Amino acid sequence: MELDKSLISGSMALLVMKLLEGSDMYGYQMIEELKKRSDNTFHLKAGSLYPLLHSLEEKGYVSAYEQNATAGKPRRYYHLTRQGRGALQEREKSWSIYAHAVNRVLGGGVCYVGA
Amino acid sequence: MSEHNTIQSYLETVASQIRWKRARPIVTLELERHLEDQRDTFAAEGHENAEQMALAEMGDPVVLGVKLDSVHRPAPQYGLLALTILFALFGAILRIWLTADWEQYYMDIDPLKTLLAFALGCTALLLGYFLDYSRLGLHGRKVYIGALIIGVMALFFSPHIAGVPYYTRYIALCYPVVYAFWLYTCRRKGWMGLMLSIIGGIPLALICVLTPNAFGFLMLLVTGFILLIMAAWNNWFELGRRKSLLSVILCAAVIVGTGLCYFLSSDYSIRRFSIALHPEQDPLGAGYQAYAIRKALEISMWFGEGTWSPEIFAYPFEKTVPGCDSDALLTTLVYKLGWLPFLIVVMVFVALVGLLVYRCLKHKSQLGKVVALAVVITLFAQALCSVAYNLGFTLFSAAFPMVIGNLNTVINMWLVGLVLSVFREESIARDHACDEKSLLPRYRIKILVQKC
Q: With contact defined as beta carbons under 8 Å apart, do A48 and A12 qualify?
């Protein structure tokens, strides 16, 4: 099923930071990993990923370093910083509140009738 | 999209949207690698138009370029630039003002030359500020060899004043930064890298010894040790943090031990050290300057001119305290204006260095951090030795940065400009995985075994 792009774009930073929580990755690897973990639901465009990664780096949430990848080519790996871990926790919390609220509304939720 | 048939043309379009030219190749390199990966994957899956598919996957190059442009902008350092210029201007005015009513001008205190040095210093500051320090980092070996050649040439061809080649003292102020660039080239080379990083410091130190420039030598030694510790801590040599740190500390212990042995076995060094501590033991000989400085400080006030009395010295202040218009200018400041203005000058400088240290420790690139740290240590070491000198401990002479000396001001302002360029370019700071190309040609031996 094709997802509405606006649904993904708002949570893209959260997804990327979550990916980096486990291990350091380079851009291409992140796209592949996200595809794999979401059963091909999330298909990140590289054109959106790199500006996002660079702005996260600017904010100090991720740091980057160059290292040779398994294929031998040098790649720019991203690492979630301590500040980034803190931001991730906060975003995860906000997301769960948001998702919970959306689910309640979609599922009928609490209904105040005839007060 | 149709006009972008190749990765190169696509990347050119992305780059054209990024206004900061220096950021273009750095940012597009990552995209290029990504596109190559994607192309290879599509090709492996059997697609014929793999490159076009990879480009389509990346999206519109103009939109991507615009997004990257908003992230990658130089971070102007106007505050620190203004603080440096104001401090240097204050230093120039102070030099002229303190010596204005003296009969003879020392060549350094010629008002015109002082103002010219300030103007040149501002130019050097801006040159350093707009310099691409990362390019120097990529060509660290060439920078190192160039600095060595200049040092050796200065040793032989520089005019000699009091038996010392005049310009080597100033060239040595840049050696900690040169060493930082050298150290950066030794990364990822294991034991060989560690050995090269230590050996690389020897020729620079040798130039200081041959000058002779004890302050330059010690400054290089201390800076080199701190930078090596930092490199070992960050595992630059890929030997493991503990192993690298132990090796550096062991090496430092050997050098310090050798130095101490030499010092203890040299009567001249011991005598010089004891006179620096107790100049009154030889008040008319080697300890005269320190003795005169201490006497001048004794009669200084908190605010305002000190009370000079012919009972202390027969001649006026400027004819009594040697170097009161150069290395001992801070003593002149204390004597003529008081301890309070002296403390304000020192405090402003400490604030400037403190700001640089704070920004340096937060910097994300290792090259940037090491370069900034080398400069900060150089500035701090000069200030520390100069203050000690002007308080009557005249073991090492050093000019207070941007307050004392013309050429000294120009070089120190260039160094500050270099640090500010590190901060300015933080958003595109990269530590490259690739090494600098060797200066020497590399040969590959091919052995062919032929079956008989």
A: yes
pLDDT of residue B419: 96
Q: How many domains, in total, are found in chain A?
A: 1
Identity of the amino acid at B107: M
- B401's tokens: 């940065």
pTM for the predicted model, two decimal places: 0.84
Given this model, what pLDDT does residue B440 score?
52
Among the partner residues A46, A57, A66, nearest to B34 by beta-carbon distance = A46
What is the distance in angstroms between the Cα of A88 and the nearest Cα belonging to chain B? 20
Mean pLDDT across B135-163:
92
Tens-digit pLDDT profile for residues A26-78: 999 999 999 898 888 888 888 889 999 999 998 889 998 888 776 678 889 99
The pLDDT, as a whole number, for residue B326 is: 86
Highest mean pLDDT out of B44-48, B257-261, B417-421: B417-421
Type and span of the H or E element at A78: strand A74-80
Residue of B294, B281, B374, B365 whose CA lies nearest to B335: B294
The CATH number given to whatever domain includes residue A66 is 1.10.10.10
User: Does the distance separating the beta carbons of B34 and A28 come in below 8 Å?
Assistant: yes
DSSP symbols for B291-345? HHHHHHHHT--SSS-----TTT-SS-HHHHSTTTTTTTHHHHHHHHH-HHHHHHH
Which of B:403-442 have CB within 8 Å of A? 427, 430-434
For residue B176, the surrounding DSSP H or E stretch is helix B175-185
Cβ contact B247:B202 at 8 Å: no
Residue A66 lies in a domain: yes
Does the predicted interface ipTM exceed a cut of 0.85? no
CA distance, residue B305 to nearest chain A CA (Å): 51
Tell me what the mean pLDDT of segment B377-384 comes to: 96
| Full domain range(s) for residue A55 | 5-105
CA distance B170 to B151: 10
Amino acid letter, residue B93 = I
Q: Kindly list the residues from chain A whose CB atom is less than 8 angstroms away from the CB atom of residue B64.
A: 47, 50-51
Considering the domain boundaries, does residue A94 fall inside one? Answer: yes
DSSP assignment of B67-81: HHHHH------HHHH
Could you tell me what percent of chain A has a pLDDT over 90?
39
Q: What percentage of chain B has pLDDT greater than the value 70?
A: 94
Contact list in B for residue A47 (CB cut-off 8 A) is: 58-60, 63-64, 67
- Nearest chain A Cα distance for residue B7, angstroms: 14
